[in-house]
From TrEMBL, chain A:
This is Postreplication repair E3 ubiquitin-protein ligase RAD18. Pfam families: SAP, zf-C3HC4_2. Residues 242-276 form the SAP domain. NCBIfam families: rad18. It is found in: Nucleus. It comes from the Eukaryota. One of its GO terms (biological process) is protein monoubiquitination. Its EC number is 2.3.2.27. Interacts with E2 UBC2, forming a complex with ubiquitin ligase activity.
Automatic annotation (TrEMBL), chain B:
Residues 111-124 have a biased composition (Polar residues). Pfam families: CUE (PF02845). Its main location: membrane. CDD domains: CUE_Cue1p_like. It is found in: Endomembrane system; Endoplasmic reticulum membrane. Keywords: Endoplasmic reticulum, Membrane, Transmembrane, Transmembrane helix, Ubl conjugation pathway. PROSITE patterns: CUE (PS51140). The keyword Cell inner membrane does not apply. Belongs to the CUE1 family. This is Coupling of ubiquitin conjugation to ER degradation protein 1. GO terms for molecular function: ubiquitin binding.
UniProtKB/TrEMBL annotation, chain C:
Transmembrane segments: none annotated. PANTHER family: UBIQUITIN-CONJUGATING ENZYME E2. It comes from Penicillium cinerascens. It catalyses: S-ubiquitinyl-[E1 ubiquitin-activating enzyme]-L-cysteine + [E2 ubiquitin-conjugating enzyme]-L-cysteine = [E1 ubiquitin-activating enzyme]-L-cysteine + S-ubiquitinyl-[E2 ubiquitin-conjugating enzyme]-L-cysteine. This is Ubiquitin-conjugating enzyme E2 2.
């Protein structure tokens, strides 16, 4: 499992002289996923979340997580300024942080410019902060703070070009490399090669303000935004009233959408909701991702929350599928099978031993005695004891 | 390309209604009789851990809570539960108020724990924290240092093992500090 | 396997709780290989019979965290408290999803929402220890004792606190 090795977080600032940036960074993060806002949108109660996060929440319970007022996905509005703030902050973050950490390290070394190996800086910095907080002598602290201020200033000047360079790099008018082609007639839409020809038949060559469904996404269109070209977002997916569709119709719909159509009905509904959220959140993006990337994200969802995760109900559905990959299944569950076989052997040995006393001596030296019904070997080797309920 | 399923006709709907009525009636009758309202099931109706064990070995991916819930509802029939799982119907999620009579970590719960301290986690019910975290060895050395040791307030490392170690250290410190304080308080009272 | 939204968010919370821990709280995953299983220590709140004690609890997170709340259970010695089941499971409104209200008394605003966090849960549990909610006792005996024989309740809690510390 690919674990996040380490992730940037607002607490990164806490051990540096710039600890006041921690709350700033925190306000630039979505309170649902704790990450920087990704396609921030505004609810009708004026709270901002990532487009995908709030869509998932709304399809789950239909309320704003902050104030619990009822809201609908259709009412979400893009929050461009927040997106810009986040982007600019992210650009500035690395240089600022490395500077702040250098400074923190320098302070702990008592002004020596001894280079610290990078991973240790954090902890050294933290010691420094603690020390400061508990410093008995306010005089020395004041002095240190002042000298630190000067140093930061000097260092800032040294590093400044770097920062500028970064913000230049981030010019937004680049064409996204998403495998799409823009319409040669200049209507501004981007699409796959395959769709292009059908599109050319109908294209008027004029920039359409909002194709097809103004009610669902015209409202989310940017009202105005300086210097940036907007690509018309792909069309939004409407919600489906699942109870109106029979299984067959639903599956047909899934095939039209190009998403997997296996699994129980409940799973299908959950998958469609997730797909709709992924898709519609992508529509909020300034640079929409290509569909295959969204399909990848759906796959991840499938593995972690959907049908490909552990609950057996859906796994059983998978086995009964026609195109079930037998080899893969048996190889990926090899360990489980082996363990089950071993357990079964142990158990039958135990049974033999309890019924036929003579067998005990024979099997004792090669099979360890099972620990009885209350201790079972779990998959990872640690014995787990079932304890009867407390008092 | 794909034919829609034939729509339901009236006789089949009627049959369905009758069948579901009986199923529901049977279900509720059986469910209500043993204990009325309140927390489900009395203490006498505990699930046999061996049965739970048996099923969770067959289907390690199911949570024990679900298994116990199903076993309790079908009166402890392993065969019925197995049948249900194999038929692909899956197990129902137990209601939040369901308190299993047998405590056991769920099958998809704790992964392998690297430290000896954590290894004792699941069997710790009814233990005190000192034995739970294997701190008895540290008691003697710590009491000598007494309160002089300043507990580290925060810790984070780039490295996974290091993080684990720091967390454990903070945990141990917290327990030992509380114990020291408690002992001091009692000594103060005794005098 | 790619890490899910839940894992990432839990990692954020873990980091936050480690770098900037609130007073009297230590929490983190038992092993980083399974971010969905945590263990937490909380200190007993001051000026209550729980004062001076340290309580261990396990937290289990659902795969769709933070949409659904985790469950919390005290381990290693029971906690004698009206809102804690005899097996240690904590019954507190912040751990209940807003959809279901088994007790019909909680305000939706007190219940789980994706913007809540492990830290907020643990802080709520600390204040729950100080002020039991009498309306929906999870441990009826403890609730009765708390209501009718307060000195006995407090003595029992103090004894358990000492036992928990191995004294």
């Amino acid at each position: 499992m690919a674990e996040p090795f380490d992730i940037p977080d607002s607490t990164d600032w806490l051990n540096t002289p710039l600890l006041l940036l921690a709350p700033l960074e925190n306000s630039l993060r979505c309170q649902i996923c704790k990450d920087f806002f990704d396609n921030p949108v505004l609810t009708s109660c004026s709270h901002t979340f990532c487009s995908l996060c709030i869509r998932r929440c709304l399809s789950n319970e239909g309320r704003c997580p902050t104030c619990r007022l009822q809201d609908q996905e259709l009412k979400l509005r893009r929050n461009w300024i927040v997106q810009e703030l986040v982007e600019q902050f992210q650009n500035a973050r690395e240089p600022m942080l490395s500077l702040a950490r250098k400074e923190a390290a320098r302070l702990t070394n008592g002004g020596d410019d001894i280079q610290q190996p990078a991973p240790k800086k954090r902890r050294v910095g933290f010691l420094d902060q603690d020390e400061e907080a508990e410093a008995a002598d306010p005089g020395s602290q004041r002095m240190r703070t002042r000298s630190r201020g000067v140093k930061v200033e000097v260092a800032m000047q040294e590093e400044e070009p770097e920062v500028i360079e970064d913000s230049q790099d981030d010019d937004e008018d680049f064409v996204p490399e998403d495998g799409l082609f823009s319409c040669p007639l200049g209507c501004g839409r981007r699409m796959k090669e395959a769709v292009m020809f059908t599109h050319l038949d109908v294209c008027t060559g004029q920039k359409a303000p909002s194709p097809a469904k103004p009610a669902t996404f015209g409202s989310l269109q940017p009202q105005r935004h300086a210097t940036q070209n907007f690509i018309d977002p792909p069309e939004r997916l409407p919600a489906i009233n699942y109870s109106l569709l029979k299984d067959g119709q639903l599956k047909k719909k899934f095939r039209e959408l190009g998403i997997p159509d296996w699994g129980s009905r409940a799973l299908l509904q959950r998958r469609h909701t997730e797909w709709m959220n992924l898709w519609n959140a992508n529509c909020d993006s300034r640079n929409p991702k290509p569909k295959r990337e969204l399909l990848n994200e759906l796959k991840i969802w499938e593995k972690t929350q959907g049908g490909a995760q552990t609950p057996f109900a859906s796994a059983a559905d998978e086995i009964t599928r026609k195109d079930f990959d037998r080899e893969k299944w048996s190889s990926s569950h090899d360990d489980d099978f082996k363990r089950l076989i071993a357990n079964a052997r142990k158990k039958s040995d135990a049974q033999i031993r309890s019924t036929i006393p003579g067998a005990l001596a024979a099997s004792e030296d090669n099979v360890p005695a099972p620990a009885g019904p209350i201790e079972i070997p779990m998959g990872n080797g640690d014995p787990v004891v079932i304890d009867s309920d407390g008092p | 390309m794909h034919d829609d399923e034939p729509s339901l006709n009236i006789p089949s709907l009627l049959t369905l209604a009758v069948v579901s009525f009986f199923v529901l009636r049977w279900f509720f009758n059986r469910d209500d009789s043993p204990s009325a309202g309140g927390r489900p099931r009395g203490r006498g109706n505990a699930v046999d851990p061996a049965q739970v064990d048996q099923i969770s070995q067959m289907f390690p991916q199911l949570s024990t809570r679900e298994i116990m819930w199903d076993l309790q509802r079908n009166g402890g029939s392993v065969a019925a539960t197995t049948e249900r799982i194999l038929a692909g119907r899956g197990l129902e999620t137990p209601p939040p108020s369901f308190q299993p009579q047998v405590a056991m970590p769920s099958a998809n719960g704790p992964a392998r724990q690297s430290t000896s301290v954590a290894a004792s986690t699941s069997k710790a019910d009814g233990q005190d924290l000192i034995s739970r975290y294997g701190l008895s060895a540290k008691l003697t050395s710590e009491s000598a240092e007494a309160a002089s040791a300043t507990p580290s307030k925060s810790s984070w490392a780039q490295n996974k093992e290091e993080r684990q170690r720091l967390l454990q250290k903070r945990r141990d410190e917290m327990i030992l500090a509380a114990r020291r304080k408690m002992m001091q308080k009692e000594q103060g009272k005794a005098k | 396997m790619a890490s899910s939204v839940a894992q990432k968010r839990l990692f954020h919370e873990y980091k936050n709780l480690s770098t900037n821990p609130p007073e009297g709280i230590t929490a983190g995953p038992v092993s980083e290989d399974d971010m969905f299983y945590w263990e937490a220590l909380i200190e007993g709140p001051g000026d209550t019979p729980f004062e001076g004690g340290v309580f261990a609890a396990e937290l289990k997170f659902p795969k769709d965290y933070p949409l659904s709340p985790p469950t919390m259970k005290f381990v290693g010695g029971g906690v004698w408290h009206p809102n804690v089941y005899p097996n240690g499971t904590v019954c507190i409104s912040i751990l209940h999803p807003p959809g279901d209200d088994p007790n019909h008394y909680e305000h939706a605003s007190e219940r789980w929402s994706p913007i809540q966090s492990v830290e907020k849960i643990l802080i709520s549990v600390m204040s729950m220890l100080a002020e039991p909610n009498d309306e929906s006792p999870a441990n009826v005996e403890a609730a009765k004792m708390w209501r009718e024989r307060r000195p006995e309740y407090e003595q029992k809690v103090r004894d358990e606190v000492r036992k928990g510390l191995g004294l």
